[in-house]
Amino acid sequence: MDIHRLKALLAQVADGSTPVDTAATQLQRLSHEDIEYAHIDHHRSLRKGFPEVIFGAGKTAEQIIGIMQRMAEQESVILVTRIDADKAAAVHAAIPDCRYHEDARMIIMQQSPLPDTGRGTIMVVSAGTSDIPVAQEAALTARAMGHTVETVFDVGVAGLHRLMAHHGKLGTATVIIVVAGMEGALPSVVAGLVAAPVIAVPTSVGYGVSLGGLTALFGMLSSCSSNVAVVNIDNGFGAGYMAAAINRRPE
Amino acid sequence: MDIHRLKALLAQVADGSTPVDTAATQLQRLSHEDIEYAHIDHHRSLRKGFPEVIFGAGKTAEQIIGIMQRMAEQESVILVTRIDADKAAAVHAAIPDCRYHEDARMIIMQQSPLPDTGRGTIMVVSAGTSDIPVAQEAALTARAMGHTVETVFDVGVAGLHRLMAHHGKLGTATVIIVVAGMEGALPSVVAGLVAAPVIAVPTSVGYGVSLGGLTALFGMLSSCSSNVAVVNIDNGFGAGYMAAAINRRPE
Amino acid sequence: MDIHRLKALLAQVADGSTPVDTAATQLQRLSHEDIEYAHIDHHRSLRKGFPEVIFGAGKTAEQIIGIMQRMAEQESVILVTRIDADKAAAVHAAIPDCRYHEDARMIIMQQSPLPDTGRGTIMVVSAGTSDIPVAQEAALTARAMGHTVETVFDVGVAGLHRLMAHHGKLGTATVIIVVAGMEGALPSVVAGLVAAPVIAVPTSVGYGVSLGGLTALFGMLSSCSSNVAVVNIDNGFGAGYMAAAINRRPE
Amino acid sequence: MDIHRLKALLAQVADGSTPVDTAATQLQRLSHEDIEYAHIDHHRSLRKGFPEVIFGAGKTAEQIIGIMQRMAEQESVILVTRIDADKAAAVHAAIPDCRYHEDARMIIMQQSPLPDTGRGTIMVVSAGTSDIPVAQEAALTARAMGHTVETVFDVGVAGLHRLMAHHGKLGTATVIIVVAGMEGALPSVVAGLVAAPVIAVPTSVGYGVSLGGLTALFGMLSSCSSNVAVVNIDNGFGAGYMAAAINRRPE
Amino acid sequence: MDIHRLKALLAQVADGSTPVDTAATQLQRLSHEDIEYAHIDHHRSLRKGFPEVIFGAGKTAEQIIGIMQRMAEQESVILVTRIDADKAAAVHAAIPDCRYHEDARMIIMQQSPLPDTGRGTIMVVSAGTSDIPVAQEAALTARAMGHTVETVFDVGVAGLHRLMAHHGKLGTATVIIVVAGMEGALPSVVAGLVAAPVIAVPTSVGYGVSLGGLTALFGMLSSCSSNVAVVNIDNGFGAGYMAAAINRRPE
Amino acid sequence: MDIHRLKALLAQVADGSTPVDTAATQLQRLSHEDIEYAHIDHHRSLRKGFPEVIFGAGKTAEQIIGIMQRMAEQESVILVTRIDADKAAAVHAAIPDCRYHEDARMIIMQQSPLPDTGRGTIMVVSAGTSDIPVAQEAALTARAMGHTVETVFDVGVAGLHRLMAHHGKLGTATVIIVVAGMEGALPSVVAGLVAAPVIAVPTSVGYGVSLGGLTALFGMLSSCSSNVAVVNIDNGFGAGYMAAAINRRPE
Amino acid sequence: MDIHRLKALLAQVADGSTPVDTAATQLQRLSHEDIEYAHIDHHRSLRKGFPEVIFGAGKTAEQIIGIMQRMAEQESVILVTRIDADKAAAVHAAIPDCRYHEDARMIIMQQSPLPDTGRGTIMVVSAGTSDIPVAQEAALTARAMGHTVETVFDVGVAGLHRLMAHHGKLGTATVIIVVAGMEGALPSVVAGLVAAPVIAVPTSVGYGVSLGGLTALFGMLSSCSSNVAVVNIDNGFGAGYMAAAINRRPE
Amino acid sequence: MDIHRLKALLAQVADGSTPVDTAATQLQRLSHEDIEYAHIDHHRSLRKGFPEVIFGAGKTAEQIIGIMQRMAEQESVILVTRIDADKAAAVHAAIPDCRYHEDARMIIMQQSPLPDTGRGTIMVVSAGTSDIPVAQEAALTARAMGHTVETVFDVGVAGLHRLMAHHGKLGTATVIIVVAGMEGALPSVVAGLVAAPVIAVPTSVGYGVSLGGLTALFGMLSSCSSNVAVVNIDNGFGAGYMAAAINRRPE
């Protein structure tokens, strides 16, 4: 339950539109709610400004549905990451009011529109066409968290003039997410051009010594540019979330 | 040359206090300056808001001195990282107007005071006493870049109440740098408590399967908290720089 | 053959209810029994208090059935680990008197109830919902070995208050098994709160640099808490077995 | 401050032998004490039955001395691990009332004798002569924590009859610590002989593919015996501590 | 073409039973024969006492058939390794005069019986039931090369008495092949009991840190017994071949 | 657009056969063309002498078709690498004027014959039959780029006389590509025989410690012959491209 | 002995200036010369156009001197690589007619000037000042082999305009050697700008996940530019040798 | 105590030259002898034909001396491996009757000449001059165990004709030890030429991706020749021991 929903509930109690018992029942789950297979952290929205996000891998569709249903009573927006098409179909059948993004393998359930909460624009840049799914996951996450996002795809370092065509736009972003596989060189080049913080996302695109993304990851961590920090391989979600945390406007 | 120095120089030309030839000589090196062993990127301050930083490892004292002397003509603050005490003594002998920080293995040469350029406070938290040198490198870097920094040391997860004693302060920081070796669990815990972005710095403190910091690094990248991004092992400098980029007040 | 069965058999010989020849036949296999593809260690129950456990991976259903049938003549309880649903169905068809636990991928054949053999309660704690199958394998193993087990699931370090709600119960356990994937931070935190020994089980839950559980494993081995020892990745069985060995009441 | 010291202090307050103010000063540091470079966790003895242990690596002699002096006011026994001879000499000069064990690289400061707190005997077994320093670290730790310890050294698997000569003794231990480098096979063999829990400690003894102990570690984690759990490479201290936690007599 | 076939052919030329032209055609391929996708090394039997062995992985059934057909004109025995059941069926359809061993994934085509060429008995020992396929590959190879082989399966170190039951037999073997997965401890124990050379074969049996057999491999290479040499993971074929080379009776 | 096509277009403008507007439309895409999922680098032919090559892995058939259609308007030859048979069938259905090479997993679309652009012959040598697909990818690439290529397959170091039969031919090549899996020893041997540059290509052929080609790769990089440079595992395409760059006749 | 020296020797025999016996003595060592600790390959100059190069690491000064003295009788130029200053001093004392290059750790003994044997200019580019020693090793090697070499140092990707200032020169080189540590991104960028072959040399400059140069190496092998091949970490010598092989003018 | 010494002792008892008590004292230590830091396995000579060998690394000089003194009473020959010059000097001072081989880092104490116990000649071949110390360790070991050994050094694959000059000798050896660093290709080539078993020894000679010998090791394990088995990196001792086990003449 985020701060806006909490204040609204208390206002309803104050004006009598919600009975005390109803409010009490809801608030007693404010810390966390225990179900058989999960301790849902309803307090997270208050503490961190955004509710718990459901990591879909390794959970059954039934577990995901159960968690979403409890969360839906308390939260405006619910995200499920790393969920494949089959499980997503089962979830959608049970909870029609959500949308599956197949390339990014995410479910987003947006119960009410979010206000823009950002200080500026978040830019998402990808090195290759094969990196787009991860870049989309980042963009969708940041948008779901109430931020303005722009994307530029396929501007790898083997043809620098393609990146340079977007030089101006890069200079105005508050945060830049750079997604790249193979040698992962793009974040160093982008970060060398701007003062803004760069969140680098290595992808598992490549073969042989790309080692499932480890080479891109290590390259990004060893970047000769300093305004760079890195998230896990293929972790578009984490990059979008971190960028949103950086771009968040103080209340 | 940063934007303030550049404007000041042009003002001096405008009012005649600096002859055109003198200014031209200085400005023709604005892009970069070639010396035998380096292409010094004098343009970086303009482009990125902070001058090139000298990576001390693998350079001779002579090379470091040479680069610092050229930079000193153009920049207000010069940083040298990863420089051991012997080389630092040689540098200090040649350039007395700089200070060596032994624990952080940094030289800082501050030719003029920097204005506070931050949106808020940067907090630096370390898990153990043995992690302090890396935490100091982060704090010194961010301060040298014009930011307000607070530090809390030795609050590892084996005794959580020590961290909790600083809970309030953590909630007010704009960015938090968390420095930890061994299992590297502290960033997950800290990030779980706050909405602000967390820059995690793994250290090489530990032995056996701590693998020189790889275990802490991988743990931080695999964090179950999402407002976390990571820099290279023992890279306190990079964490301080990234935190400064995030905390920078728009002009 | 465990010590109770052995004594019972000898008592039957003493009172004449079992003929000497029948007993002799059974006892001559007491050391180990040779079948084409296995040397079944029937002596293990006497030596170690619990019979050999069948590692299902890499064995055919026929081999598993053959070994179980020989063991069933001597042992009260038989465990098969790491057996997938298809093989389990074939085993169940041949030996209906056993039960398959699909999430834990175990077969348990309990021919007679075991007395409680423990000094206290074994607690099994998991960091996430996706870690439950491994946690179940641990709990099932310890229960099959005659111990009282309690479970708490999904109390990861990103929301510490969920764990703290179970603080009291943790303090009373004789042994605690902590199951976690990703960064594997939970055992350090739990062990920091209690004096009891903690068996940490890394899981392969995660992606990218979680490296199939190696990161959680190395994190647990590098724990800054000292009352922690670790078993192999996803080795819920081993954790349950080790916890039972620790919790065993001296006879 | 452990529970005995705490009760004694309160008794002194009760009988007037300690003034209220004196006791209050001491008790206000009960949670943790802040010094410049450390948050000393004085609460740990109460919570875990044994005070914080000082990890010597990466700390200066001055830091170690400072922490020991604060702890000495509250604790009966203080351990410093992984401290080399030079630093130990500096510590000893400042705090003569402590003893350095050079092979185990430990300082032990025992201010008052500890009662035997164990349920039985802890046995420490090493595979080779070169593994003795790690085995000694384990034995010293468990003894410092108030347990009875027996040691058997150099009984590696290349000459099994040497181990078998101690078979009887092994069968009576409550916990067995097995220390081995190279292929690390000894814990599997020992655990196959007994019902007691085995704590396996890999050492960095070996060369080439022993990989600094990783091979022994992985071998121990892959053990075909199930009553085995493992600690970090060369972590004799952790093995001794874990064995003590297992062997602790309930109060 | 081996030395026996070569002499027989020349004898036939000498007695006129084979025309010179026929013999010449065959002998001109004695060095190697070029087909589109292979240079078949027909000289190998002469040089090494055994013909080239076909590595089935990565070859099409057509390629395997083509190579076998050329070899069949020159060699008494042909081996194909690492060939799955589907490809083997296609090969068998084209060349009915060969036999597929499914557990060992080998095809053996024995055109004429081989004389016993060994100095003594080769013993093949496996640690577990799951290791049998690799052990069978070793046994089949050595037998196909004309050696006497005995096998003992499932005598792992967790129950040493099972191995000890075969102590006598082990002492009489000329060479011992020991096959083991998981921690790979069995070769050290076996080699500690005998003077004969031991060929250790690590298998990929295990999970987690068994790392697909790397842990067993490294353990065997780090063996504290010295009469041990090692072959690649799951390389039963290589172990059988090497054992045959060792056991070969000088002519 | 390569330099020949560019000159032809300008000549058509000069002689009036192409209207200025038509040419202008085409030339304004000369730098790069933006489509939804790609920035196609049409300038690459001019800059590098060969157009962008499409990395098929991770792209949908639709994306590949879209990129090929845009490129077909500007380029004489288009390559798609790492494309499996299913996707290739979809591409072929949409663009019939291209050919799929199944073993090399490449699509080649050759709109007009290329002149021979080489200084001499490129030789492609493979160690085993299983390495042929990678060798074919190298040969097809270099031929598509306008070079003369000869191939020799299955001449591994276990039967050196097979390689020696081609010694003369090796001595006359301008560049030699050597493709090998397993221990990857062939490039060292070939490079020891000739003065020409050798491009070594490790393949993933092998098992166990061949580690998916890493062992061959590291062996080749550690070669005791010095006229060797290496490309990524299974990167036949890169080897062919690099050989073509070396063999390119100056214009 | 290279082809020029060989022809000269034969000419002297032809005109009687060298007696037959003297020439015979020298020619009988043409294949290789056996000394106690080495088989010197005197045939290599004839076969490969350049004599054997002495790998200094792991050899004693005495061994190096002994080999050099034998080679000096046959070769015009002798190279020793990876020789530290102490050994080099001992060599220089015994063979004053050679020169030690300390930064590149090479000894070069040039007995007669070499003719320019190249087709064009070899360019050596380094990313950072710390990479210069490796770049110098490459440049010295290629020059010693008779090629024209130009160098550009410290043009890393964090400030692309520095590299772009040399764009023209890069376009005219026959081969480009690119030396870089850390993330190793420079070769991709350089190769994206030119059609010439690029030899990439990873260096061990960096820390943490630069992993002693593995990250730069893997990045270069995963390059999204295709005209790149790679040599071992810090192998400036190999890069210089390979570049010379590529640039060699046909005779 | 080996079988010869044992028989001699019993003969002395039989003829009265040794009193029963003296013999009894010695024989009661026949199994193993316990000293403070070692269980000396005096039974090993009887069981394995050669006494325990002392692994010098990680032992103090005092421990080595103590063990040697006990062994000297029972054994004809004593070996200490991996002992550096300083410790060796201390040992030599205490036990003058032994010899230190500095390049092989071994001490050999030969109390009486050994009879030749071999079936034929063991050949030791090294790829480079830098590999000689490991090759010497192998040769010294096999000679100390009573075998005839021949050596050929520096015949690496970059100049095959050097190896071919010894082709005849290779064909007559009973066992061949091949020692090589870098890419480790020599064992494959040698094994391809002969029928005898080849023991391959990888060395740590090399740099960068030679990874301290892992690359040579993995290459040797992946050898395309089948009569090859491998020992640990730099383990010349193990290779010599294994070769002796293979070459041992049956009694």
Description:
The structure is a homooctamer of 251-residue chains. Chain A is α/β, with parallel strands linked by helices. Chain A has helices spanning 3-14, 20-27, 44-48, 61-72, 85-94, 132-144, 160-164, 167-172, 186-193, 214-221, 236-247, and strands spanning 33-35, 38-40, 54-55, 77-81, 99-101, 106-110, 121-126, 148-152, 175-180, 198-202, 228-230. In chain A, the strands form three sheets. Chain A has a five-stranded parallel sheet with strand order 8-7-9-10-11, sandwiched between helices. In chain A, α6 (132-144) links the parallel β7 and β8 (148-152).
For this entry, give a set of tags:
homooctamer, 251 residues, alpha/beta, four-stranded mixed beta sheet, 11 helices
Strand order of the main beta sheet of chain A, please? Answer: 8-7-9-10-11
Portion in strands of chain A: 15-25%
Order of helices and strands of chain A: HHEEHEHEHEEEHEHHEHEHEH
Largest interface: A-B, 33 and 34 residues
- Unreliable runs of chain A, pLDDT <50, ≥5 residues? none
Category from helices, strands and their pairing of chain A = alpha/beta
| Main beta sheet of chain A | 5 strands, parallel
Proportion of residues in helical segments of chain A: 25-40%
Cα-based radius of gyration of chain A, to the nearest Å: 20 Å
Distance between the termini of chain A: 17 Å
The overall pLDDT average of chain A reads 92
Query: Based on CA inertia axes, which overall geometry of chain A fits?
Result: globular
Which secondary structure elements does this structure contain, and how are they paired or packed?
The structure is a homooctamer of 251-residue chains.
Chain A: H1 3-14, H2 20-27, E1 33-35, E2 38-40, H3 44-48, E3 54-55, H4 61-72, E4 77-81, H5 85-94, E5 99-101, E6 106-110, E7 121-126, H6 132-144, E8 148-152, H7 160-164, H8 167-172, E9 175-180, H9 186-193, E10 198-202, H10 214-221, E11 228-230, H11 236-247
Parallel strand pairs in A: 3-4, 7-8, 7-9, 9-10, 10-11
Antiparallel strand pairs in A: 1-2, 4-6, 5-6
Helix pairs in contact in A: 4-5, 6-11
